[in-house]
Amino acid sequence: MDLWPEDVVPGRLTWSVTRDKRLRACLRRYYLHHFASRGGGGQKSTRESRELYLLKHLRNRFMWVGETVHEMVELALNAFRRGDEVPVDQLIDRGTRRMRAQYSESVQGIYRDSPNTKFALFEHEYREDITRDEWKLQRDRMAACLRTFFALPVVQTIRKAPVLQWLAVESAASFELDGATVIVKPDFAWRDTEGRVVLVDWKTGKPRQDDERLQLAVYAAYAKRAWGVAPDFTRALVAYLETGDVIELEFTDTDLVWGESMIRDSVKTMRELGAYDTDAARFPLTDDLKQCGFCSFKRVCGRNGQR
User: What is the 3-state secondary structure (H, E, C) of the chain?
Assistant: First the structure.
C-alpha cells in the first residue's frame, strides 16, 4: 500500500513494506513511481508524467491473481462475520466474472484514458505473447487458492471465533515512528481463546521469508500499539494458498526493535532521496537484472538507451 506524503500530512513521509521493497529493488524504479509520475493524472500533466502515471498502475498477471484472491477472501470473511454461508463455487464464479471484466478492460486499452480507474495488465501494455491457456491458468490458480482457503484449519477456527474477538479484516491503519507514518493492512487478526492476538497473512505466491518476517514484525509492532498486546503474546501466521502450507512466526521485543530499526533505516534513506526528487541521476538503475522482467517502467528507465 502506498500513500504520498501529502496524502496524509503535508511534508510527512509515509512508509510501507511495499514502498520499502520498491526502494530496495531499484532506485530508478522508486524515482519513476514516487516522484517522476507525480501529477500524471491531472489535466495539466505533461506527456511524460501521464505515461509514467499509466505505467505505475500496471499489474502483471501474477499480481492480478493475488489481488482477486484477497478481494474474494475479504468478501468471504465479511460474510462469515454476518453469519452467512458462502459456497466456495459461488465465490469462484464471482472471482471469474471479475477477472473477465478486468481482462476485457485491459485488452481493449480503456485504461489509457483513465489509468487510475480502469484495469491495466502489464502483459497488454507491453504486448507480450501470452497464450490463451496461460491466461486460463491464472483463473485456475485463483480458483485453487480459494478452495485451499476454505479448507484451511485456521479458517475453520476463525469461523468458530466470536465476532467480538475479531480485530481486523483487510483494515488499513497506521502508527507513527520518528515522524513518519507507517502504513499497515493486516489481512486478518483476532483474539484467540487464550487472549492472544493472532495475525494472519494470506499469500498466493512463493515464500519470501525475509520480506514476510519484516511485514509481520511491523504488524506485531502495530498490534502492540493498537491492542496493547506484547509480542510474545502475539501469533503470526503466513498461509500459502497455492500449497496449503501455514507457517507460524514468533516475535519478541528484540524482534520488534529489529523491525523498527529496519523502518528507521529505510525512512532515513527515503528522506535523503526526497531532497533530490527531480534529479533522476541520483537514482541509479539496479544491477540485479532479475528485477527488470516485470518492471512497469522498463521501457522508460534509461537502461539500454531508453529515455
Answer: CCCCHHHHCCCCCEECHHHHHHHHHCHHHHHHHHHHCCCCCCCCCCHHHHHHHHHHCCECHHHHHHHHHHHHHHHHHHHHHHCCCCCHHHHHHHHHHHHHHHHHHHHCCHHHCCCCCCCCEHHHHCCCCCCHHHHHHHHHHHHHHHHHHHHCHHHHHHHHCCHHHEEEECCCEEEEECCEEEEECCCEEEECCCCCEEEEEEECCCCCHHHHHHHHHHHHHHHHHHHCCCHHHEEEEEEECCCCCEEEECCCHHHHHHHHHHHHHHHHHHHHHHCCCCCHHHCCCCCCHHHCCCCCCCCCCCHHHCC
Q: Which amino acid is at 191?
A: R
Q: Which tens digit of pLDDT belongs to each residue from 188-217?
A: 999 999 999 999 999 998 888 888 999 999
Segment 282-298, tens digit of pLDDT: 999 999 999 999 999 99
Q: Indicate whether this model's pTM tops 0.85.
A: yes
| Spatial distance between the Cα atoms of 160 and 192, rounded to a whole number of angstroms | 10
Measure the CA dihedral 268/265/35/299, to 10°. Answer: 150
Q: What's the grid cell of residue 25?
A: 529493488
Cell matching residue 149: 482457503
Whole-angstrom distance, CA of residue 167 vs CA of residue 188 = 8
Domain ranges of the chain: 13-154+289-305, 157-265
Bridge partners (DSSP) of residue 15 are 182
